[in-house]
Amino acid sequence: MSILGWLSQSHGSPKHCGLTHPVVVCLLHYAIVISTTIAVHDYLVIPALDYNNNDYYAYKDFRREGWTFSVSQCSNETRTDEEQPQIEKHTYISQFLALYFLFLLTARLLGEVGIARTGAIYGFTWLCNTAMVFSVIGIETCRPLLGSSSAVAVSIDQVLWYVDIIGW
After folding, report:
1. For residue 101, with 0-12 CB atoms within 10 Å meaning exposed, 13-18 middle and 19 or more buried, which class applies?
2. pLDDT tens for the chain, residues 1 to 168
3. Distance of CA 90 to the CA centre of its chain
4. CB atoms within 10 A of CB 34
5. Contact between 122 and 17 (Cβ < 8 Å)
6. What is the DSSP string of 62-130?
7. What is the per-residue pLDDT for 83?
8. Under a CB-based contact definition with an 8 Å cutoff, are residues 120 and 112 in contact?
9. Which of 97, 123, 95, 130 shows the shortest CA–CA distance to 108?
10. So what's the pLDDT on residue 71?
11. Are 22 and 121 in contact (CB under 8 A)?
12. CB 108 within 8 A of CB 123
């Protein structure tokens, strides 16, 4: 069986009974989605920023030569005393979201057995769970558009669920 065949969806396949397939699919999902989204963000958003506008406080220290963002650029090294509480609040929010994501993962894995456990792992590839990861990455790397765009995408998804339920 080829790798692509092993990764593809097939109902009733024995590969869905073990933990290997769902864990590999989930890790592959996050590796591809995170790296692709960050690359597209950096390619499209960063060159379009107006560095003279104070609304882009998180980006104003961006150094074009290196094309890198780091947590240190969001830290108190480049911030005034008035901006420091805002940075600390963002760090607490991102840490809370990361811990909440890990808590959800642990609770779902410990609370389920058998085939339901594999379904819980597959469920972590859903947009709402991926949005939490993007929010943490966006806050920690000074890319607020990652978190906000994920929130908008989840909002649209939820509204469409309600429309679907009403239409059903």
Report:
1. middle
2. 577 776 776 666 767 677 888 888 899 999 999 999 998 888 887 766 655 554 444 444 443 334 444 444 454 445 555 555 556 677 788 889 999 999 998 998 888 887 788 888 888 999 989 999 998 998 888 788 888 888 899 999 889 989 999 988
3. 16
4. 15
5. no
6. -BTTTTB--GGGGSTTS--TTTHHHHHHHHHHHHHHHHHHHHHHHHHHHH--THHHHHHHHHTTSHHHH
7. 53
8. yes
9. 123
10. 41
11. yes
12. yes
Beta bridge partners, 63, equal: 68
Q: What is the pLDDT of residue 56?
A: 47
Place of tokens 């097939």: 10
CA separation for the pair 69, 92 (Å, rounded) = 19
Q: Are 69 and 78 in contact (CB under 8 A)?
A: no
What pLDDT, on a 0 to 100 scale, did the predictor assign at position 147? 83
d(CA 122, CA 118): 6
**For residue 62, what pLDDT is reported?**
44
The owner of tokens 């699919």 is: 25
Burial (CB < 10 A; 0-12, 13-18, 19+), residue 135, is: buried
- String of DSSP letters for 32-73: HHHHHHHHHHHHHTGGG--TT-GGGTTTTT-BTTTTB--GGG
